[in-house]
Amino acid sequence: MRRPLSAALLCLALPAAAIAQERTLRVVSPWEIGSLEPSRAGYVFTRMEVAETLTGADDGGLAVPRLAASWTVSDDGLVWHFTLREGARFHDGTAVTAESVAAALGRARAQPGVFGNAPIAAIEARQGAVEIRL
Q: N or C: which end of the chain has fewer CB atoms below 10 A?
């Protein structure tokens, strides 16, 4: 239990010049990272705020905006339309688009795990938003 805390304190103690010269990104987390594949360890990345979900949950369990600024659901509950937050950017500064989000969700859906078992018929970018059809 002390090892992650010790590593974090060690990183804080390194001189800024030494850190600036090194090109390796070191991540210190109190959670075990078993894989860099988000579909296998995505909760770790969202807790560390490295990845973001379309929605989150408040303390009462109700959905709240995250990457999606808003969303609508069809009357039959089968079509979910997520409008993305303006100005969202990837780590390299490129814009997060509906196409990139739909592609990421499609990739995650193809991986082993709970998301792959969801009754999703299609995930598509439509008019700048992400549409998920069940």
A: N
* CATH number assigned to the domain covering 2-133: 3.90.76.10
Region label for 92, one of left (φ > 0), alpha (ψ between -120 and 50) or beta (otherwise) = alpha
| Domain boundaries, given as residue ranges, for the chain | 2-133
3-state secondary structure the chain: CHHHHHHHHHHHHCCHHHHHHCCCCCCCCCCCCCCCCHHHHHHHHHHCCCCCCCEEECCCCCEEECCEEEEEECCCCCEEEEEECCCCECCCCCECCHHHHHHHHHHHHHCCCHHHHCCCCEEEEECCEEEEEC
